[in-house]
Structures are given as C-alpha cells and as structure tokens.
Design brief:
- This protein has about 475 residues and is an alpha/beta fold.
- It contains 17 helices and 15 strands.
- Strands 4-3-9-10 form a 4-stranded parallel β-sheet, sandwiched between helices. Strands 5-6-7-8 form a 4-stranded antiparallel β-sheet. Strands 12-11-13 form a 3-stranded mixed β-sheet.
- Strand 14 and strand 15 form a beta hairpin.
Length: about 475
C-alpha cells in the first residue's frame, strides 16, 4: 500500500499518515459561510482537499473514506445580507449553496461524503455548550454565562495557542478581539449569544439565541465523525482548511472540543493551505483584482484550467494567480488532451506520480512527472488529479474540430498548436481587459480568413472561404 506523508500543522513536521481505522478514514474541512459567491481564494482549499480526498480514496478505497465539509448557514453576515435585501434568510442560503455547488462542480471537485448545515445541528451545539458549562473531573468549568451570552474561558485550557504557536499575550496584542463587558478575558470567545425577535434564534437553557461560529464545526465533527465512540476514542484523522482559519477558528475548535472530550485527540492531523494572490498582490476589491470563480467561468475560463493553475503550486506555499499562468495551463491541457484523446486510461498510475502526490500532496511535482508519461498513464494520472478526459471537454473538441477541418479541407500541413496559441493569446488579452491589443490580434487573424468569437466554453474559430494558411503562419 502507498505510504502517504502529510505535514501536520499541530506538530510542525511531516509525518507518515496512519488512519485510526483504515476501513473508515475520516476528514473534516471547514466550508463556506453561505451569503455570496465563492471568490477565487475560496476555491483553493476546495481543490487542495479534493485532491487529498481522491488520493485517500485511491489508496484506501472509495467506500472507506468519509469526507465532511460543512455549510455555515447561521451567521451575522447572512443576517446582514437579509436585512439589506429584504429576502428571507432561507432563500439566500439555499441560493448560495446552489451557486457554490455549481461553481465547485465546474472546477472538477467531488462532492464530499456529507455536507452538513449548521442549522441542522443546533441541538448538538447546545449539548456541547452545556457540557462545557458543567464542572469537569477536576471541578473546573470551561464556559460561563454572562448577560445572556455563554463564553469559553480561554485560560481554562492550558494548551490554548499551541496550534498557531502563539501565547495568549501575543494573541491579545496581535489579534482583533472583541472587547465586551460580558467577557472576563479579552480572548474568551462566544459559544452562544442572545437573539432579538428579528434575528434567527433557537430555545436553549440560556434563553432564545444562536450559536457562535466556532462551536459549529466542533459539534458537527463530533456528531458525524465521532458518533457513538467512547470518550477515549473521540478522534478522527484529518482536519483541514485555509491558513487564515488556523487562528482563531481552529485554535478555538481544539480548545472547546478537547475540554468537552479531554480523553480524545479531536483531530490527529491538521492541514492548512496558504493564501492566494493575484498578479503578485493580495486580492482585494480596493485593488480591483477581486473576482469570483463565477466571474472567471463566465469570461470563458474553463474550470479545468483554473484547477490546473491552482494545483501547479504546492498547497503550503502562497499561490499567485496570473493571466500568464492560465494561458500556459490551457496550452498544456490542450497538448495533453490531444495525446490522450480516444486513448484508454492505464489501470495503474505511474509510481513516480503517485509518490509525488503521497509526499504531502506535491501536486507541482506530480504535474511535472505527467509530462514524461505514456498517453494511457497520462490519462489515468489526469483522472486522479480531477482533470477531465479529452472526450468530455467542449472547448477542446471545438478547437480540435477546427484544426482537423484545416488539415482536411485545405490539405495544408498547418501546425496545430499555432491556431490554438493565437486563440489563447486573444482570449488572454480579453480576460486581462487589454481590449485594444485583443482587437488588433483578432483583426490580424481574421485577415487570414479565420473568424474569432468568444463562446461560453472559451474562444471559438470558424474558417472562412478566403482562408489563407500562409497569412496565419505569418503571425507566428
């Protein structure tokens, strides 16, 4: 069996992965708060842990991996969106979950085994909070009630800060903490808060209210991945998410979960992907480089191109999205699709490719290894990475149709990558909003008798009666 090694944020070391139960490898990844479209940065953890999910299924078998990714459908941002728009919260969350599924499906991400919604687990959250408010075996209480709020007492958990490697003093100095009169310590965090009549709320021992954000994942992971386990077995294999969640969200998850079930380990392995930049800068609306996954898809960027670019950088390194990388990814995929079109995939992937993935998800090395494979192994490897078959890619089929039409109708040995390169160059210029340059290139291509147009699956080309291959070749 392939040996998987993963970098564990908790121990700050790469470790051999040994599942608690090889018959049921269990992974939890923090999902989205559903009030708006997923931006490009939101897609990175989806794709990173989708590859890990595929690798675990490959090694242990599809029926022996449980992958849970939640939807946070009760949160103040959702409440604010409802107040702004006058729409029902349920309508907003339902629509946003549909958007999320559509966009992540377009990137080739498998649906997790379970996708729990926070509002379906309020009872489990209340039960966990109640447990924290009661004295433990040493007589210590880990949560307290003040002014209708239930708060976790950070000082009650001696290991608080170990995941992020910070002291409580450092965290207070460096973090944005909510200063409130009901807190005994600025770092204490809300487990339950009261709800006014205009806000969502559920009955609880502390009155009508709603959960804090951090308790959601602890309660759902406990209810789904550790259900019916004895106290000393309350653990699962992998917890993942973006590095931005390491503190305070994951730090708080560990604290409340370990205090609720001190004999267990909660998650054995913690994994975090680094952040995303756009053209070397942090993505932000103020810089004008903020866009959603749907923005790219609607501009004709294929989902598999987005996926390729994301996987070309190791997940623990910052990922820089650039137009140039997207253009190169599309060219590389077009080449791979030509090699594998109509080819039967190999039954076994390359051992070097598999070893690269098993070495802490080294997708960058895995993609490099794919360039030297036979066509059957290349196709099998692409499938394991979540890249589609050539037979199912509309933009490639259209491009291939045009290129084959050139060869058969004119009997001219036109180099196939040339037209592809010109189409991709035009598409890239349009995507980067260099419209004058795009129009100039389009005019040059059309003067050779090839009409260009932007389609839903990317650039499309139609040969005209006055097609002149020599003019096209002059554009090299």
């Amino acid at each position: 069996m392939t040996k998987i090694r993963l970098y564990n944020t908790k121990t700050r070391a790469k470790e051999d992965f040994a599942p608690l139960d090889p018959q049921n490898v269990r992974m939890y990844v923090c999902g989205p708060t559903v009030y708006d479209r997923a931006h490009l940065g939101n897609a990175r953890p989806v794709l990173v842990f989708d590859v890990l999910y595929r690798l675990l299924r490959h090694v242990y078998g599809p029926d022996h991996v449980t992958y849970v990714r939640n939807f946070t459908d009760v949160e103040d941002k959702i409440n604010a969106r409802a107040a702004e728009t006058g729409r029902a919260i349920s309508d907003i969350t339902e629509e946003t979950i549909g958007w999320y599924h559509d966009d992540m499906d377009a990137l080739g991400a498998l649906r997790p085994t379970q996708e729990p919604r926070a509002t379906d687990y309020i009872g489990q959250m209340v039960a966990m909070i109640e447990r924290l408010t009661q004295p433990d075996e040493t007589g210590k209480k880990h949560a307290y009630v003040e002014q209708g709020h239930v708060l976790f007492a950070v000082e009650s958990y001696a290991d608080y800060g170990k995941l992020s490697g910070r002291t409580v003093e450092d965290m207070i100095a460096g973090a944005r903490v909510e200063v409130a009169p009901y807190k005994r310590n600025p770092m204490d965090f809300v487990l339950w808060k009261p709800s006014t009549p205009d806000l969502p709320g559920w009955e609880s021992p502390w009155g009508r209210g709603r959960p804090g954000w951090h308790i959601e994942c602890s309660a759902m992971a406990d209810a789904i991945l550790m259900k019916d386990l004895p106290e000393d077995k309350k653990s699962f294999d992998i917890h993942g998410g973006g590095i931005d969640l390491q503190f305070p969200h994951h730090e708080n998850e560990i604290a409340q979960s370990m205090c609720a079930h001190p004999e267990g380990d909660f998650s054995k392995v913690w994994m975090h992907n680094e952040m995303l930049q756009v053209e070397g800068k942090k993505m932000s609306k103020s810089l004008g480089n903020f866009f959603t996954v749907r923005d790219l898809l609607d501009q004709g960027m294929p989902g598999e191109v987005i996926r390729f670019v994301m996987l070309s950088t190791h997940y623990r390194k910052p990922m820089d999205w650039t137009v140039e990388k997207a253009e190169e990814a599309r060219k590389r995929l077009a080449q791979w699709f030509r090699r594998t079109d109509g080819v039967k995939a190999a039954d076994i992937v390359s051992s070097r490719f598999e070893a690269a993935l098993a070495d802490d998800l080294n997708t960058h090395l895995a993609l490099t290894e794919m360039g030297t494979m036979s066509a059957p192994q290349l196709k099998a490897s692409m499938r394991l990475l979540g890249l589609p078959d050539a037979e199912d890619v509309d933009w490639f089929r259209q491009l291939d149709k045009v290129l084959n039409g050139v060869a058969s109708a004119y009997g001219h040995n036109l180099e196939q990558p040339l037209l592809c390169e010109l189409m991709e160059r035009w598409h890239s210029l349009r995507t980067s909003k260099r419209y004058a340059d795009a129009d100039q290139l389009k005019a040059a291509v059309e003067s050779a008798g090839v009409a260009l147009q932007a389609g839903p699956d990317g650039p499309q080309a139609d040969l005209q009666k006055d097609f002149d291959p020599s003019k096209l070749e002059a554009l090299k």
